[in-house]
Amino acid sequence: MNDRLDPALKVAELLLQIKAVKLSPSKPFSWASGWKSPIYCDNRKTLSYPPVRTFIRQQFVHLIQSEFGRPDMIAGVATGGIAHGMLVAHDMGLPFIYVRTSAKEHGLRNQVEGDLSVGRNVVVVEDLVSTGGSSLQAVNALRDAGLDVKGMVSIFTYGFDVARAAFEEARVKMHALTNYNILLDQALREGYITEKDLAPLNAWRKDPANWNAPVQA
Question: 50: burial class by Cβ within 10 Å (0-12, 13-18, 19+)?
């Protein structure tokens, strides 16, 4: 770890080091949505590296305290936000709940799991924000359960305009530990990409739905 980096750059550096983020503009990845993407992000890998998950937990706690104060509870979004949310809740000495992608089809048919009587407001922990759709579904589930969502924190965000607009419309404050632009800066600095790669990577960020991988010479 390079302790001289500011926290956002350091998180980006760690994601690149452990290959939680992979950049490949010439051989793009396919998302479930059908989009072609020059980046693949799997923040679940951070849990396999104790120094990395510790740093992320510490940064989450600092971010929550600085932006939202002390909430009554921490909520994790299934599945990637559950482990990180639990680590944050433990560090802060707070109750923890989590949000399923959909309500169970049996039993109590809960979508939000945990004891909701232990507090009224909550900060939500996500691992990744892309378009914001699934993240805001979790927020809506918490609100439907009668909770006041103070805001959301995530490890990484692509910073799509559609996500920014969706969070604004839903009146949800979202803060990420690092983002796409910072990641590209760090990737270029550390030699993961070249100056030539920046054009297609930036083009994808502006219009991911219609982006095409550059033709190799």
Answer: exposed
Residue type, 121: N
In degrees, rounded to 5, the angle at the alpha carbon of residue 142 between the alpha carbons of residues 120 and 79 is 120
Q: Is this structure's pTM higher than 0.70? A: yes
Token pair in block for residue 193: 């990409």
Peptide linkage before 54 cis (omega within 30 of 0): no
Which tokens hold the place of 64? Answer: 């929550």
Contact between 28 and 194 (Cβ < 8 Å)? no
Element (DSSP H or E) covering residue 83: helix 80-92
Alpha carbon distance 72, 93 (integer Å): 10
CA distance 82 to 78: 6
- pLDDT tens digits, residue range 105-144? 554 468 999 999 999 999 999 999 999 999 999 999 999 9
Structure tokens at 65: 């305290």
